[in-house]
Amino acid sequence: MNDPQSEPDTVGVRPPLSRATVLLLAVVCGAAVANIYYAQPLLPVISRALGVSEGAGGLVVTASQIGYALSLALLVPLGDVLERRRLVTVLLGLSAVALLGAAASPSLNALYAAVAIVGVTSAVAQIVVPMAASLAADHERGSVVGTVMSGLLVGIMLARTVAGALAQFGDWRLVFVFAAVVMVVLASTLRVALRPVPPTQHTPYPQLLRSVLTLVRTESLLRRRMGLAAVGMGCFTILWTASSFLLAGPAYGYGPAVIGLFGLAGVVGAVAAVAAGRFADRGHARRAATGGLVLLTGSWGVLAFAGTGGPGGLIALIVGIMALNLAQQALLISHQSVLYRRVPHARSRVTTALMVSSFAGSTVASALASALYPAVGWAGVCALGAVTALIGVGIWTLELLRPSPSEPVADPAAEAEAGAPPEACAAARRSAHRPGEGYQCEDSPRSDSTLRRLSSENKRRPGSSRRKENAYDHAHANAHA
Q1: Is residue 252 helix, strand or coil?
Q2: Are 6 and 409 in contact (CB under 8 A)?
Q3: Which residues have a Cβ under 8 Å from the Cβ of 340 and sit 6 or more positions away?
Q4: Which of 126, 193, 241, 371 falls between 20 and 30 A from 404, CA-CA?
Q5: 271-275, 300-304, 467-471: least confident range
Q6: pLDDT for 71-123, tens place per residue?
Q7: Following DSSP, what letter does each residue of 103-132 receive, concatenated?
Q8: How far apart are CA 357 and CA 354, in angstroms?
């Protein structure tokens, strides 16, 4: 079943983004989100250096995820109402300050506080993604989002490798100093290279936050994709939190540098992000989601063999990492593709809802993995991951049996600005409803072009389509009257 394509966001054709701009946005996205993953391969080192248990040390990741989730709820919606270049550069600068605070932390509690603030500022990555979608032309939106998301995944994976290498040859605190320098460089580069990106809405902040809840309440497609996002990120976090303890334990006995190298196996998911974005541009995002869930569930069966150690266990771990990361990226691109088409005027707020759910799942999974690993070991953690993936299969089965509406919806703000009575807008939409089309009332930016298109298509379509278009014209005339 193909997913419907959306109408252009604006009148006329938007020029494609340059490769250099897309690459810069991908690097910013990856470097920003890497800040909350540097600590994962360092958990055993940090625990020993600060004299705490592995369970307490594992909560460093949980603290950063909590900060990240709060920022997704409270800061990311601002991407719809503020000038985004300024917002992104300011958050990158604040992230640099918080990272230096983490590097200077004298105790575990101070480190918890610092990495929580790092998590808050790292949500800039989720402002960059909808910004890239808004800047992209319609025919390239999926591939642009896929490329930027591939940068996000590469950042997560390389964060482990870089952190492991720096900690091996220096100190775990050096990792956070390095990350702070990267933030300063990227903030300066983005400020020079990117033109100001104006907001898409002019809505008071309290109303903006309420509108996120309204979207969640009214859009079943969003609610189901939020559930799937929580499942996917939960599995991702279970793997990377527990694997650090597995690789440092008696089965393998690796140091932080070698543990960090396993992040390179996950970079293969970056290929999946670009491919999934192109697949979505062709209208197959639902198929990408189905394949992603099958692969996500199966990966835990492979990963279970990693606990045996030895060459066989090592191969199972690498293959399982590759499979799970491929699945996670395919799922995430599918979610963003269908939701950005469904609600094109509120992409930052849709991202907020999707990512809050995603990182709520991640936070719970991180805490469970850290708490369960000492008690049940790698096999128990793999069972937890498999159960989490099966929850996603159940959600997706419901979506396949009872599909949610996925055609684009009109911008309520545009309708209000047009000055037409709400009932006239509703009548026009009901009369002209066809899957895959977005609708605007009377004097909104696309109304005239929409009518011209309908008139042109009317000449080629007989029967019921003709009657629908006449009904649309009648409702449109009543609205003007």
Answers
A1: coil
A2: no
A3: 6, 130, 133, 141, 145, 347, 350
A4: 126
A5: 467-471
A6: 888 888 888 788 888 899 999 999 999 999 999 988 889 999 999 999 999 88
A7: HT--SHHHHHHHHHHHHHHHTTHHHHHHHH
A8: 5
